[in-house]
Amino acid sequence: MKLAWHVAPLLASAALALPLGACAGEASPRVTVAVAPAPSSSAPGVLLPPEAFAGISDVHARSLALYGEAAKVIASPRCQNCHPADSSPRQREANEMHDPPVARGPEDEGVPGARCTSCHQDTNLELARVPGAPKWHLAPLEMAWLGKSTAAICKQMKDPTRNGGKSLAQIVDHVTHDELVGWGWHPGADRIPAPGTQKDFGRIVAAWVDTGAACPEESR
Amino acid sequence: MIRFRLNGTDQALDVDPEMPLLWVVRDVVGLTGTKYGCGQALCGACTVHVDGEAVRACVTPIRRAENRSVTTIEGLSSDGSHPLQKAWLELEVPQCGFCQAGQIMTAAALLAKNARPSDADIEQSMSGNLCRCGTYNRIRLAVKKAAGT
C-alpha cells in the first residue's frame, strides 16, 4: 500500500503516539529574569514598545527597564533552546533534551551523518512538526545562554568574545533581521512564540543600546 | 519540472516541489530500497544523501535536491562492493532489515568525512538511526570494520 505524502506523517503520528514537540506550557525553571523597573506590566506574549519607557527620565534606569523588557524574549524557550551550554540542543517549553539525541559538532551544525539540516529544512514542516528555518544550527558555545541569568546574558551580549564578535549595532541588526532568530516568533506547530514580534524586539534592543546598554546586577 | 541527479542518472520530473524526496525515489522513480519509517525525521530509515550529506528523505522537499546529486542505497555502489555493504554482509548485521538502508547511508556519510571514527564518533553520528531489532552492536562493529579500525 502506498501512503500519500500529504497525510503520511499524520498517520504515523497517530499510530506511534510519539511525544513530538508538544509544548508543556510551563516556563523554564532554569531562567531567572532580571527584574527592571518597567512602566507597567504587560501580558504574557506581549512586548511593550520603547515609547512605553519614555516616562523614565533617568537614562540608566530607562536602559535597565528596556533590557528587562528584552529579557522576556531572551528567556523564551524558543531562544534558549538553541543557546545550550553543552552539546545538545533543547526543545519544548522546559528545555528538554533534543529527541532524537544529536550532537553539536565542531561547527555547531551537527556531526557527519547527523547534521542539523539532515532533518531541519528551511521552513517549518507542519505535518511532520519538524521546526525549520534557513541555516538551522546552534549558537556557539561561547554564546550559551541556557542556565544563566538574564543579567549574566546581558553582560555576555555586550562582550565581543562571547557574542560572536559583534558590535552593539551588529547585535541590533542581528536580532532584528536574522531569519533564524526570526523563527522564534514563527515556531510552528503548537510551540509558544517568543513575546511580541521580531520587529518589536529589534526596536527594544535598539532603544536599550541607544540608552547605554545598561545591564542589571545579579539578584541575590 | 525538477531536475536533479539520482544515483548518477539525470532526472527531470514533473512533481510538486514540496513532495518529499522519499516519495519521489520510491513512488515516482521506483527505487524502493529507501524505507518509510516514521515520516517525521525521527527514525532514520529513509536516510539518503544529497550532495554527500545525509538527509531524511521523508521530510526533505524535492526542491532542496534541485540541481544537486542524490544517492540512495541503490547508488552507494553498483555491485554491493562498498566497504560498508561488505562489512554488513560479513557480520550479518541485519535482523528484520527494515532500517538497514538508512543505517548504511548514515554510516557512509560519516566515513566520507571521518575515515577512522572512534566509538564516540560512531555513536554520535548514528544515534538518530533507530533499530527496533537492537542490532546496534553489530552496526558499530560493521562501521569499524569498514573503516579498518
SSE inventory with pairings:
The complex is a heterodimer of chains A (220) and B (149).
Chain A: H1 8-16, H2 59-74, H3 77-80, E1 90-91, E2 96-97, E3 110-111, E4 114-115, H4 116-119, H5 150-157, H6 168-177, H7 179-182, H8 198-210
Antiparallel strand pairs in A: 1-2, 3-4
Chain B: E1 2-6, E2 9-13, H1 21-28, E3 47-50, E4 53-56, E5 69-71, H2 83-90, H3 100-113, H4 119-126, H5 136-147
Parallel strand pairs in B: 1-5
Antiparallel strand pairs in B: 1-2, 3-4, 3-5
Give a verbal description of the structure.
- The complex is a heterodimer of chains A (220) and B (149).
- Chain A has 220 residues and is mainly α.
- Helix content of chain A is 31%, strand content 4%.
- Chain A is built from eight helices and four strands, in the order H-H-H-E-E-E-E-H-H-H-H-H.
- In chain A, a hairpin with a 2-residue loop joins strand 3 and strand 4.
- The longest helix of chain A has 16 residues, at 59-74.
- Chain A starts with 7 loop residues before the first helix and ends in a 10-residue tail after the last helix.
- In chain A, 42% of the residues are buried.
- The model of chain B has no long low-confidence stretch (mean pLDDT 97).
- In chain B, a hairpin with a 2-residue loop joins strand 3 and strand 4.
- Chain B folds into two domains: 2-76, Ubiquitin-like (UB roll) (Roll); 83-147, [2Fe-2S]-binding domain (DNA polymerase, domain 1, Orthogonal Bundle), CATH 1.10.150.120.
- Chain B has 149 residues and is of the alpha+beta class.
- In chain B, strands 2-1-5-3-4 form a five-stranded mixed beta sheet, with helices on one face.
- Classes of the chains: A mainly alpha (220), B alpha+beta (149).
- Chain A binds chain B through residues 2-3, 5, 8-9, 11-13, 16, 18, 20, 99-103, 111-115, 117-119, 121-122, 125, 128-130, and chain B through 19-20, 22-23, 27, 36, 38-42, 44, 47, 53-56, 58-61, 64, 106-107, 109-110, 112-114, 121, 124-128, 130.
